[in-house]
Amino acid sequence: MNIASKLPSVGTTIFTVMSQMAAEHNAINLSQGFPEFPISEELIELVYRNMQMGHNQYAPMPGLPALREEIAQKIAKLYQTEVNPDEEITVTAGATEAIFSTIMALVNEGEEVVVLEPAYDCYIPAIELAGGVPKTVALNPKDFTPDWEKIRDTITEKTRMLVINTPHNPSGAVFSPEDIKELKALLEQNPNLLILSDEVYEHIIFDDKPHLGVLADQELAKRSIAVYSFGKTFHATGWKIGYLVAPTSLTKEIRKVHQYNCFSVNTPAQFALAEFLKDESNYQGIGEMYQKKRDYFVERLAASKFKVIPSYGTYFQILNYDNVSQESDVQFAERLTKEYGLASIPVSAFYQQKTDNKMLRFCFAKGEETLEKAADILCKI
Q: Where is the Aminotransferase class I/classII large domain (predicted)?
C-alpha cells in the first residue's frame, strides 16, 4: 500500500531514541526531561479521593470550571493580569496538545511561522501539518539570546505567528526586559502577527530572575497565546495536563480544534489540581529546589573539560564538549551512552538543519546520587 507521508522528514524523536539506548546499555538517563523523584503525596491523595467520589466521567471540553477559576486567580497573583476563566482559559492534554491545537486553529495554508532555534521538536511538525511554512532564526549559540534584527528581517507579509519559549528548552536561557521591549515593538510593526509563547517552565527559574511572560504585559497579552504545563510544575509529566491562555476571539477558534483533538482532559486530576493550586507554596518554591540541583551538578563538573553554558531556568544544562572531542554531537552522545553509561541529548536535534555546535543537553531533575555519578563520568573523560 502506498501512503504519502504528511511528515516525510520526521522519524522517532531523539528523546525516545536516547532513552531506549540508555535502557539497552544500562546508562544513567539524563536525556529525556522527566524528574526521577516522586510527586506530592497530597496531590496523589487528592486524585485518589476524587476518583472515589465518582469524578470519573468527561469533564467539560474547556476544562473543569473550578480549575479554570484557580488558574485565573493564579495568573492575577503572579502577573497582575485579569483573565476570564470561561472565555480565555482552556485546559489541555499537556502543553504539546495546546501548541498543536493553537497552530492548527490559527495558521492557514501558506502562512509563515517564525521559530527560534534551537527549538522544542513539536513546533515545526505542527506548522507543517497545518500547511504553514516554518521560518527558522538561530539564537546566539554562545548564550541563546534572540537576534531581534534577524527576526525582524525574517518576518514578511505572509508571517502569521512567532513562536517563543522562555525559560528556554534546551538552553535554560530566559527573556530579559529588553527582549520584551523588542517583542512589543515587533507587534506594533506587524499588526497581523500573533505570539505563541511556550512558558511551561514558568516556575523553574533561577538566580532571582523574574519570569517575563506575555501575560504580564497587557499589550502582549492581547496578541498572544500562552501555554503552561502542570506536568512540569508538579513533577508529573506522565499526566499530560496543561493549559493555554488567549484572548476570547483566539480561544474560540482554538477550542474548535481542541474539542475534536482530545475533547476533554482527565477529570479526577483536574479536580485534584483545582484544590492543590489553592496553596501557593505548592508551586512558588520550585525554582529554588531546582537551582540547588543545577548548582550541585555544575559544581561537580569544575574538574571536567566540558564548558558549562549558563542555565537560568528549566531543568536542563547544556555542556559544550569541543575541548573533549570533534565528533558530531550525535556520535558523541551515542558513544557517551554506550561506552561511558551516560545518556544525553545532542542539541543539533533541536535544529531543522541539524546545526552542530558541539553541545549536549543534560537533565538535572534527578537525585543527588544520580547527578554525582553523572558528573564523575564526565570528569573522567
A: 27-377
